[in-house]
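lol forgot to send this yesterday, sorry. struct tokens for the thing we talked abt
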């Protein structure tokens, strides 16, 4: 019987995994100087956490969630996104009692039952951030600026920032009315999902991916024409802050995002390098969500980036730096194997990646192996060398070679590997 991974799910193997690590550590480095701290959250949550926050009539909740009863019959969902869980944790752990703002980042797998294709998987990985307690438009711009700094330092090119404001509960009703008015004579031509959305959440029609609906919504009212004074001035200040920070943007009035919890600012970052699944990051404000989860009134904003799309871009643009052993110790004879394992321990304590030829094969075959591993050096230790207190070494990069006293190993290492940990 042959086994294979589930459809839309993939392994991340070396050497690709080095790119993933690079992206993760870069994210940690960039986000931490903006005051974001890592938060680690469960992958499974109670289903209602997502249905209530993301919204009943969204694609994610209607079609994409991995939901199942656990053994006690509770409805469990594999998280399709991070924000709902972060908000749940923020409220449950009373993090609103800590000094404001509270800023978090997370990284990990998300699950959506989607049609697998390039840049779209059923288990995919996101790095995301969420910030609680700041309403000021300058902060929205700072978040976008941080995202830009991160993506540029990661090496992503051709970035476009699309931005919109979808207002608040005060301006939403008038817009909703205008939308239902616009679609009322087109109702029968909309896709079946949008006919339901028309009743429950007409804003979602603007996010529908069906060709016919995209056609029918041409000329639809624009949400930015319905913003209340406060939302309008917030949006205008976000845009002027973006100009001050030199972040080129494009206002996209149909950018309502696929989740219901957003308020005011929404945004998406795309790269022309990506082809059809071109959104590399997306997010927005969700000023009501903490309250909906039972917490105090708390403005909040966040975004999430798709790791697969990011690493695809980097692979195409860069090439992966693959680490390899520093030293391969080839051994000849029983005593040499024990001596080599002691020396290997000392080298590893200095931070050097060391491999030992334990398999008792010929010197030639061990050196061939060292070469195949792209080791920088081979050390040769035989019973003979042990008697004379010396070892032979070979630099596999420039083919130089020589012999050194085993007692002088420390000096040899510090001259050849200046970055190795210095002995105390
Ligand atoms: P899309 O429009 O591409 O479906 P989305 O609006 O559903 O994206 P979000 O929920 O905002 O995406 O997630 C943020 C980012 O996560 C996306 O911009 C994308 O990079 C990534 N992402 C979302 N869904 C997937 C998926 N199924 N496979 C891989 N990456 C994904
Ligand atoms: Mg989607």
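and heres what i got for the seq, position by position
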């Amino acid at each position: 019987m042959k086994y294979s991974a589930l459809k839309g799910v993939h392994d991340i193997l070396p050497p690709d995994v080095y790119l993933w690590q690079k992206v993760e550590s870069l994210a940690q480095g960039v986000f931490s100087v903006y005051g974001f701290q890592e938060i680690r959250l469960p992958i499974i949550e109670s289903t209602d956490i997502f249905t209530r926050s993301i919204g009943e009539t969204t694609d994610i909740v209607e079609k994409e969630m991995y939901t199942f009863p656990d053994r006690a019959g509770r409805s469990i969902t594999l998280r399709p996104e991070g924000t709902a869980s972060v908000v749940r944790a923020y409220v449950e752990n009373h993090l609103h009692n800590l000094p404001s703002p509270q800023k978090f980042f997370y990284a990990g797998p998300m699950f959506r039952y989607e049609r697998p294709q390039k840049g779209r998987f059923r288990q995919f990985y996101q790095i995301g951030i969420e910030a609680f307690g700041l309403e000021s438009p300058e902060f929205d711009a700072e978040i976008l600026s941080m995202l830009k700094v991160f993506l540029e330092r990661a090496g992503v090119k051709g970035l476009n920032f699309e931005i919109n404001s979808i207002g608040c509960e005060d301006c939403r009703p008038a817009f909703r009315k205008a939308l239902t008015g616009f679609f009322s004579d087109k109702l029968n031509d909309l896709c079946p999902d949008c006919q339901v959305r028309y009743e429950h959440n007409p804003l979602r029609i603007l996010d529908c991916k069906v060709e016919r609906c995209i056609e029918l919504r041409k000329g639809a009212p624009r949400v930015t024409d319905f913003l209340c004074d406060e939302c309008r001035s917030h949006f205008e200040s976000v845009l002027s802050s973006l100009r001050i920070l030199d972040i080129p943007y494009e206002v996209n009035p149909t950018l309502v995002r696929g989740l219901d919890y957003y308020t005011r600012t929404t945004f998406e970052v795309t790269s022309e390098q990506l082809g059809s699944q071109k959104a590399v990051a997306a997010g927005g404000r969700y000023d009501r969500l903490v309250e909906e989860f039972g917490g105090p009134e708390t403005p909040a904003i966040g975004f999430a980036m798709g790791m697969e799309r990011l690493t695809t871009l980097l692979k195409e643009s860069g090439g992966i730096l693959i680490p390899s052993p520093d030293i391969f110790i080839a051994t000849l004879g029983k005593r040499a194997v024990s001596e080599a394992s002691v020396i290997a321990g000392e080298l590893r304590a200095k931070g050097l990646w060391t491999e030992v030829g334990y398999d008792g094969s010929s010197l030639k075959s061990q050196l061939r192996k060292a070469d195949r591993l792209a080791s920088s050096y081979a050390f040769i230790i035989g019973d003979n060398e042990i008697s004379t207190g010396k070892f032979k070494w070979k630099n596999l990069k420039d083919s130089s070679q020589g012999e050194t006293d085993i007692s002088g190993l420390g000096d040899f290492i510090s001259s050849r590997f200046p970055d190795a940990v210095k002995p105390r």
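The chain is about 35% helix and 20% strand. anyway ping me if u want another try
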